[in-house]
Amino acid sequence: MSIEELKIEIAKKVFETDDENLLSELDMLLNYNEKVVLEELPKHVQEGIKRGLQQAKEGKLIPYDEVKRRLSEKWH
Q1: Is 37 in contact with 30 (CB distance < 8 Å)?
Q2: How many domains does the chain have?
């Protein structure tokens, strides 16, 4: 089986399952490297990233164009 065929088979199984535990474990596995990198950062940086992710989940985001406008007003 080629790598492409394996990807297709895995994707089929993912789309066919309703097992939340399996999907959660797969998500953790696929994101493992990101977590390792995060854990290597200084604590204050980790906390800032987590705070930002939580704000994003809560919809507390400012569009990029708005940030640019505010900074432009502040520094010009």
Answers
A1: no
A2: 1
Euclidean distance between CA atoms 23 and 17, whole angstroms = 8
**Do residues 45 and 57 lie in contact, with contact meaning Cβ atoms separated by under 8 Å?**
no
Q: What is the Cα–Cα distance from 13 to 1, expressed in whole angstroms? A: 16
pTM for this model (two decimals) = 0.43
**CA–CA dist 23, 15 (Å, integer):** 10
Tokens of 56: 């994003």
pLDDT tens-digit profile of 11-60? 999 999 999 988 988 988 888 777 667 788 899 999 998 999 899 999 99
What is the predicted pLDDT for the residue at 39? Answer: 81
Return the HEC string of the chain.
Answer: CCHHHHHHHHHHHHHHCCCHHHHHHHHHHHCHHHHHHHHHCCHHHHHHHHHHHHHHHCCCCCCHHHHHHHHHHHHC
